[in-house]
Design a protein that fits this description.
Helix content is about 15%, strand content about 40%. By secondary structure, the chain is mainly β. The chain has a four-stranded antiparallel sheet with strand order 3-4-5-6. A two-stranded antiparallel sheet has the order 1-2. Strand 4 and strand 5 form a beta hairpin. The termini are far apart.
């Protein structure tokens, strides 16, 4: 969600998921967060607070699966 103080807009829906937000890096406009279920976070996301600027950076579960197959 993002808000201008009078209304709010949902950027992306993560229904039923847990979210861990990393501390914002000083001087940067974007922030990073992990999305997952239970004790596992499967996706790394980046957002600048806009719909178009909220993107999946990496599917971590696919990365783990690939590394286990080697």
């Amino acid at each position: 969600w993002v808000s201008n103080g009078t209304s709010a807009t949902q950027l992306v829906s993560f229904s039923g998921k847990q979210i861990f937000t990393f501390p914002k890096i000083p001087g940067r406009t974007e922030f990073y967060f992990l999305v997952g279920t239970g004790n596992t976070y499967e996706e790394l996301w980046r957002s600048d607070g806009t719909v178009n600027g909220t993107v999946l950076v990496e599917n971590l579960s696919a990365r783990v699966s690939r590394s286990l197959m080697l």
